[in-house]
Amino acid sequence: MTIFSQLDEDILFPDSDGKPMADNTEQYRWIVIIKENLEILLAAFDDVFIAGDLFWYPVRSQLVTPTAPDVMVVFGRPKGKRRSYRPDGQRFLNSIEQEQQKQQEQQRAEQATQRAEQATQRAEQAELLLQQERQRAEQLAAYLRSAWC
Question: Angle at which helices 95-148 and 2-12 pack, to 10 degrees?
Fold first, then answer.
């Protein structure tokens, strides 16, 4: 099942069309010069992704043909290796990764629920202590009133 799922991803969203990166050496040279200079220019920014000849899927759909711009600069996305690019900057997950992500989200939700329950218990304990202190204060006040009378 997992193998087929990964295979489906590779078939539906390939990272290559088998065509050459450039039509000629001059075009290739300019692609490399522009891409590398942009890397140098924007090296200080962690949230700028730069790529050359990378498949871009504007929408995750079989009906949309990807494009492969010679050079692509995406602001607001982290640097990193990608086989292809989609607008939100995330790569497509296979079924194993989706299951792992789902489990992590469930664990975070369970932890949040546990923290909320613990906070509720602490609040209930604080309320109980407050009630006990009020009772002691009332008893002390009653004792003092009876002692003065």
Answer: 110
pTM listed for this prediction = 0.47
Mean pLDDT by 10 residues, the chain (149 residues): 51 67 86 94 92 77 71 84 64 65 90 95 96 95 85
In the chain, domain spans:
2-92, 99-149
The position carrying tokens 């602001």 is 75
Burial 10-44 (b: 16+ CB within 10 A, else e): eeebeeeeeeeebeeeeebeebeeebeebeeebee
Which residue's structure tokens are 């218990």? 121
